[in-house]
Design goal:
By secondary structure, this protein is of the alpha+beta class. The protein folds into three domains: about 130 residues, no CATH class; about 45 residues; about 100 residues, PAS domain (Beta-Lactamase, 2-Layer Sandwich). Helix content is about 60%, strand content about 15%. Strand 4 and strand 5 form a beta hairpin. Helix 4 packs antiparallel against helix 5. The longest helix is centred in the middle third of the chain and has 45 residues. The termini are far apart.
Length: about 280
């Protein structure tokens, strides 16, 4: 290392001044390449480069050993072999400064050159597909999480929709059965306001009273005379205030049937304390 300290600044300046001068090749005798600063720089540079190649080879080999389902796996191994050959070449060049076996260096360089050409061919063959992968942006973690939440919400929505469709089908079938039973028993279901003659909803009442109007039934005045309507309103008000059931008979004249008795029996609605819900039927039928 004393030779390194002996180099003066003027000598280093002269070295860079003749950087492209081909008339001063490094010594090739045993140990001659290490007799100057330039020789030690050659050695340290070659060893650093060979060490970097070695580390890259180890890391790439660990990666390829764990990832066995990678695309273009053969080409990746060729790149690993290329890095290994380059590292061996630089390491052999460093040895030439101590033991100048240039025939060995020539063989190593020829093998590295052949491996380099094969590697270039392998990479060029898959380069179009690599470009396609480069332009495919990988989704961000937030986008992946949003997509997962969306799929979960969509699955939950589909499940709820299927349950609602099944429930709607069951209710439709039950409604048809109830209407059929009411038609058979000459009865109807009805809910009306206890403070007026307004009908909230009905099932079969229009058919029961043989009302042929195309308009929907929304009040008792469309079905029964005014005097009977007042009696019904009075009985409904009394049932709501007293908390009792409505039980009332109304004598009505049906078209084509003559005089009939409309029997109403209802209770106060649980969801609306001002409404009454119950059944209506004719006696005698």
């Amino acid at each position: 290392m004393s030779t390194l300290a002996a180099e003066s600044p003027s000598t280093m300046f002269d070295f860079f001044l003749h950087l492209f001068d081909p008339t001063d090749p490094p010594a090739s005798s045993r140990g001659g390449g290490l007799s100057s600063v330039a020789g030690w720089l050659h050695l340290s540079s070659d060893m650093s480069i060979s060490f970097a190649y070695a580390v890259l080879c180890v890391l790439l080999m660990m990666f390829l050993s764990r990832q066995r389902d990678l695309p273009h796996r053969t080409t990746l191994w060729m790149i690993w072999l290329f890095l290994l050959a380059c590292g061996v070449t630089r390491f052999t060049s460093a040895l030439m400064l101590y033991y100048p076996a240039f025939r060995l260096l020539l063989v190593v360089k020829v093998l590295t050159g052949a491996i380099s050409l094969v590697t270039i061919f392998s990479v060029a063959r898959i380069f179009p597909s690599l470009l396609g992968l480069a332009f495919q942006r990988a989704p961000a973690p937030a986008e992946v999480a949003d997509a997962d939440r969306f799929r979960a919400a969509e699955a939950a929505f589909s499940d709820q929709r299927e349950k609602l469709e099944q429930r709607a089908t069951q209710l439709t079938v039950r409604d048809r059965r109830i209407r059929r039973a009411m038609e058979t028993s000459c009865a109807a279901a009805v809910s009306w306001s206890g403070t007026s003659d307004r009908i909230l909803w009905e099932a079969g009442l229009k058919e029961l009273l043989r009302n042929e109007s195309e308009q929907p039934i929304d009040s008792w005045s469309q079905l029964i005379p005014e005097s009977l309507r007042d009696s019904l309103v009075e009985a409904s008000n009394h049932a709501i205030t007293s908390g009792t059931d409505v039980v009332i008979d109304l004598a009505i004249d049906l078209p084509g049937c003559g005089l009939k008795t409309l029997h109403l029996r209802a209770k106060t609605d649980v969801s609306d304390r001002t409404a009454l819900t119950g059944l209506a039927w004719l006696r005698p039928c």
